[in-house]
What we know:
5 copies of one chain form a homopentamer. With 372 residues, chain A is an alpha+beta fold. Helix content of chain A is 55%, strand content 13%. Chain A has 2 domains: 22-284, Beta Polymerase, domain 2; 289-364, Magnesium transport protein CorA, transmembrane region (Methane Monooxygenase Hydroxylase, Chain G, domain 1, Up-down Bundle), CATH 1.20.58. Chain A has a 7-stranded mixed beta sheet, sandwiched between helices. Chain A is rod-shaped and about 125 Å long. The interface between A and B is large, with 83 and 74 residues.
Amino acid sequence: MKLEARSWQKFARRRIQPGASPGTLAVDPQAPPPRLRLVAYGPDELHEEEIADPEALRAWRGRLPVVWVNVDGLGDVELLARLGAVFGLHQLALEDVVHVPQRPKLEAYGDQLFVVLRQSRSHGQLDTEQFSLFLGPGFVLSFQEREGDSLEPVRERLRKGRPRMRNGGPDYLAYSILDAVVDGFFPLLEGYGGQLEELEEEVLSNPEADVVSRLHLVKHDLVSLRRYAWPMRDALGALSREDSPLLEEGTRLFLRDCHDHAVQFLDLVETYRDVSSGLIDLYLSSISNRMNEVMKVLTIIATVFIPLGFIAGLYGMNFNTELSPWNLPELNWRFGYPFALGVMAATAVVMLIYFRRKGWLGGGRRRDGRRG
Amino acid sequence: MKLEARSWQKFARRRIQPGASPGTLAVDPQAPPPRLRLVAYGPDELHEEEIADPEALRAWRGRLPVVWVNVDGLGDVELLARLGAVFGLHQLALEDVVHVPQRPKLEAYGDQLFVVLRQSRSHGQLDTEQFSLFLGPGFVLSFQEREGDSLEPVRERLRKGRPRMRNGGPDYLAYSILDAVVDGFFPLLEGYGGQLEELEEEVLSNPEADVVSRLHLVKHDLVSLRRYAWPMRDALGALSREDSPLLEEGTRLFLRDCHDHAVQFLDLVETYRDVSSGLIDLYLSSISNRMNEVMKVLTIIATVFIPLGFIAGLYGMNFNTELSPWNLPELNWRFGYPFALGVMAATAVVMLIYFRRKGWLGGGRRRDGRRG
Amino acid sequence: MKLEARSWQKFARRRIQPGASPGTLAVDPQAPPPRLRLVAYGPDELHEEEIADPEALRAWRGRLPVVWVNVDGLGDVELLARLGAVFGLHQLALEDVVHVPQRPKLEAYGDQLFVVLRQSRSHGQLDTEQFSLFLGPGFVLSFQEREGDSLEPVRERLRKGRPRMRNGGPDYLAYSILDAVVDGFFPLLEGYGGQLEELEEEVLSNPEADVVSRLHLVKHDLVSLRRYAWPMRDALGALSREDSPLLEEGTRLFLRDCHDHAVQFLDLVETYRDVSSGLIDLYLSSISNRMNEVMKVLTIIATVFIPLGFIAGLYGMNFNTELSPWNLPELNWRFGYPFALGVMAATAVVMLIYFRRKGWLGGGRRRDGRRG
Amino acid sequence: MKLEARSWQKFARRRIQPGASPGTLAVDPQAPPPRLRLVAYGPDELHEEEIADPEALRAWRGRLPVVWVNVDGLGDVELLARLGAVFGLHQLALEDVVHVPQRPKLEAYGDQLFVVLRQSRSHGQLDTEQFSLFLGPGFVLSFQEREGDSLEPVRERLRKGRPRMRNGGPDYLAYSILDAVVDGFFPLLEGYGGQLEELEEEVLSNPEADVVSRLHLVKHDLVSLRRYAWPMRDALGALSREDSPLLEEGTRLFLRDCHDHAVQFLDLVETYRDVSSGLIDLYLSSISNRMNEVMKVLTIIATVFIPLGFIAGLYGMNFNTELSPWNLPELNWRFGYPFALGVMAATAVVMLIYFRRKGWLGGGRRRDGRRG
Amino acid sequence: MKLEARSWQKFARRRIQPGASPGTLAVDPQAPPPRLRLVAYGPDELHEEEIADPEALRAWRGRLPVVWVNVDGLGDVELLARLGAVFGLHQLALEDVVHVPQRPKLEAYGDQLFVVLRQSRSHGQLDTEQFSLFLGPGFVLSFQEREGDSLEPVRERLRKGRPRMRNGGPDYLAYSILDAVVDGFFPLLEGYGGQLEELEEEVLSNPEADVVSRLHLVKHDLVSLRRYAWPMRDALGALSREDSPLLEEGTRLFLRDCHDHAVQFLDLVETYRDVSSGLIDLYLSSISNRMNEVMKVLTIIATVFIPLGFIAGLYGMNFNTELSPWNLPELNWRFGYPFALGVMAATAVVMLIYFRRKGWLGGGRRRDGRRG
Lengths: 372, 372, 372, 372, 372
């Protein structure tokens, strides 16, 4: 929750100097410096290299069918601006790459397509970062906020020379990357699924007071995920329908499949959210049932004893019995004490019968919230 | 609920190796091995056979007007891939068949239509599996996760040589199959209808604490069903409007009818969901009414006796009455005790009158939550 | 509620043999046998007759401009099939007539229009049945589940020879019938309006525990009505826009008016539903206010007396005052008793002042939930 | 609320004879008789007159560019029918004028436009009536349920000879009238705004039990207003886009502005509704906080004194201390009484420390629901 | 909240004379007098001047490529009317400028575009005012309610002669201004983000009674912001798609970016609203858990002591033990007192065991609503 909270803050802080010139690349001073990694390939050749100066990439453009530059870290604005100049990126798009977080979206700038998604950084907790991708003629650029990514399997497939990858154009590469980014959310969701199963178990058997807080935290995370999932679905749907010469007809089917995964991601988030809401409701009504039962039983005990206590108090009064036969004559009866005990027992029995008839004693029979 | 919980898990686990090559057919190791069953027929002829090797099907294509292969079990990826090769299925579609669960959908791959639905496996509890169907020129392929299906009546109609079935093309067969799958949900819904009726009876007469858990379970199942029902309705609606040469004009009316059934299925699920929500609300307010009444009556008893107890305590004090006429002179009155009893009775009566005037004693008259 | 509950059940049971051949006319064994009633008319002539054999109708087709056959009861499938053959009804439409309940809808089959609505059978309680209507060239067929209908005024207008009716074609007759069916819901709604007014009165003045159950029942009925009202509105809207040669331009304005009535019906249902929800909320908060007040006043009484009781108990202790001057010397004071009473009075006053200052005693001033 | 309740009733009662011939002008017997008022004008001339016989209006049609007849009261159906005949009104539209209330709407009948709105009759409470308007070539007809209207400022502007009014055609007049009707709701809304401000003040400072009823009443009124506001917005939006030769291009901008006002009206109603819902929630949680605090403090007092009372009761037992040294030896101790008082004080202190450590005594610090 | 409350009021009061002639410029008497500020510029020249008489602007039109007049204060209607005459503004648009608040919108009047937005006046609290902008050939007019604005950075960029600003036409200037207005909301949102973080901290650690009021206030503000955010998004989206010759193709990309910011603004408002709702729910369930725990522990204490008190009362009765061996013989037992104490201890232990077995004593283990 903390991570995400910081993310809200950053979101709002993004443009703290309203009226700043658009296209100005201001940068988060804590962002790590960029690390550029080139993969250029064709059906028969593959070249992989770490690049220090973006100008070096100019030579690679066109030499091989597909040039893929992956950038980890957004901490050096000048470097990114020079990279943008090499590939002719639009200033506004570059601004969106740097000013994280952006809403996931697809935008066309001239002959380039620009896609913003989010990617999951961790399988155990909600920790996401922005993922930006440019698809242009002969090249793919991908930008990530921090090092360490989920694209290694894609590189591995390229290195192994899988024919569909090596023969495919940059559009197929872009698809492979986007698909990996979307699929990266599923392990995270599996984690939430496991947590929900555990919490369900607890709610049904032995709900503790902290279950509801944990459910709220899970639901809170799912609401955050949902905020990304909706626009991601829309962006990928738009991409699969995009009428651009960059996209070959064969790749379009794959993009539709990727859109499908985004739909399933959203679907699953919505399902888990419903499940967590349902569990919160179930917890609350189970707690309330239990509380009601506690109160009822305890109040019944108290209520039965209060009249009995009153009777005991009555015979504890100090009226002068010697002075008058009207004053507490029971105290001097031979069976006064048994009589008093009898009255008390009778009172208790009558009240218990009354309560049972009203059905107030029956509520305790099934009390655990399970199927009977 | 357990079954469905496992289904969420599987859903998320589906693509646990993000970045895996698309079109890779990974398989659930616990899935049963496939069993292929061929039904080939024309107006005058019907051939039924269990097939071991998909290659054997190549010979059947075109020999009779309609070739229907039903596959039970998805546990042998290679076999399915060979089957896909025989009928020219797209790799991505085949992946969707194997990677269950998919969201119900309709997709066109070249001249083939690919439909994903869910089917109900049981009439008594929520147990569903994926149902996939390919409709191509001259053939229908259907895939189910486990053996045992609801298509036996369709085969029976084919065997009996019903003219509309035997003269119809593969599109009419596909309609018959999809209709059987959709209709397979109605007995399940009838079960929920019966449960809701029973639960309504209980809520109105004698609500136990576990009613709300059972209502939550029913509502939970209905929410799950709703997740399938929406996209099934959309997929069948799209199919009935699909502009494909595979669908004859006459079959389109039948597909519209099948879509209609899916709409009714969704409608019924929504209705039951509303009913269960309404019953939960009714239960909660009835429980709360009852609890309030318990608390009120019990508190009234306690409150009446507390002042009486105080008076008794007053005359149980041990002030020395001999020392001074100011100390508890009532103790030495001739009618001290009757006087004390009188004061107590007066106090009780005054309080009861006050309570009655405030209307706090009247709530017990009608307490059972029925129409009076 | 019972009636509607049974209706859910029937709804689900409708297709209990999934996979049954489409177009098979299975029939509810308890449905009453059909009764056919012919009204044939032109501008100058009107013929009314009860028909036993549908074949007899063949002769009437075309003899007069408009042939109207009304069928009450759906219990004889064969008879209905023969009727369908006479008028060339599509098998699927006929199936929808028999397999009640269907969702209200408009469908076109060739040159015929097929409308399914629901009609109200009773003005006092929610009791509806399916109403189906075929509009074809020169004929109108209407189907009702049971005898007794709301179409008598339409027949009366025909018999009286109202020119617009007698000169109008089958489309005008169909409009008149549909309008009567829609308008048949308004008296029922008036009943709910009256109930809601009464319940509002009760909630504001003297809410009993059963008010909420009755409100839930009304709301439940309104939710059921809403399920019919939405698709009825859509079906009639589609009809008024339907581009069919059967509908004359002049009739279209009337159908738009009929659609308008359906919109008002839906509007009223929604309004009543909002009103009942609002009353439930108001009841709950009024009950809760009242309960809070009860608890508060009672607890205050108890709390004030508990310390007093403690003081009385203090002076009821039996410490040996003769042995030592430290043991309860107050008991031997001259004004010990008045002193004790004074301490009690002071305690009570201090507590009451404290409570009043906290504002806990002021809540009782306005307690009835009315405008002050 | 009463007025509106009656309005629901009338709404449902409107068509209590289902099947009545459409276009039949039935009339509410309590409706006041119509009063017709003619204003005919051109750029240089204005004629104002009260009309008894609609036939007299025939002569006025065409004599001056614009003829405006306003009708107050709908109690004489025949008169209205004759008026309809003079201007060629469609029977169904006339029926909608008389059968109040209708849903606000725009309808085109031949070359005439027919608009139904609602107008506010009072600025202090929710009291609305139907307002119907016909716009035809050279004439405007307006119908109101009762006398007394908000159109006097429009007449005043005509009389004063404002050029835009006098030169404008009937479309500009219709715009002026509709604008006045829509704007007539704003003073009413201002009243609700004032009430909500007062209620907000009360909720934040000193919530009484009746605040929630008053909030419910305001919300109820706003929900009713919303029912009119939605279709009014739609009707005026449709009018501003209507492609009719009656509407000049210049007037269209004004109608768009009028539509804008309807949007703002709806917006304001929605805002107030949100505000009232928020206040109800705030009230409920503030009441619940307060109640919790009351219960907590009172229960703490009771709980502290109950063990003390028990100790006092212990030493009030009458065991025979002379018989055995085991029987209540404390009673004969020299410092027995101070010892007992000390035990009591220690018990009370321990319990209070325990409560404070649990944080149960701290809740009373800030209790008024304001910003601290 | 006060500010916004006043804003509702003004909103309703806006047209308090229904039927007033449209285009009449009535004015809020408390509005400050207008202050006009001219900035005229071209690529090489920039002229800045405060203007007293609008007529003076006539000379500037066309002299330089872009004329920007900013008006602070709407208190002098005549002046504004003369300004409108100079630039040919439509009367209705001018009316919308003056009659604040209007709903954010885009409207086309002839060759001019008219945009209404809201702008934030303060970063610490919700204080907004209307911002109106006219874009015409060669000029931009902006209107603000009060002095002091967020446009200073835009002027600064003009003065510094940034080429894109100075070479851009009035459309680029309009974009810069609108972007500054939208971005002006982000610091305000950051403030709410900070408040929510603090409140979250409090809810999780030590919730006070006023947390919920503060959460309600934040949520209330966010609901108000949402009312502006939706139409602002729509207006800016419409502007970016507007097909007007005023907008150059290059500027359109920038307007799309500005629309994007409005989408993010709305997104953030919705997120914060969800967060605040979630925190309110969490607070309520945490308070309710805590209250339940208090009540439970306290009730248990009371319940254990009530039977003990009863026993003590029993042996405080004054039955005459000398008269009969049946009367309270325990009082004269040698070990009567230890016996009584033993009975009490046994009772207490039995009850505590019973409570523990029921699980009513275990709820106190984790009570703080944190992750365990």
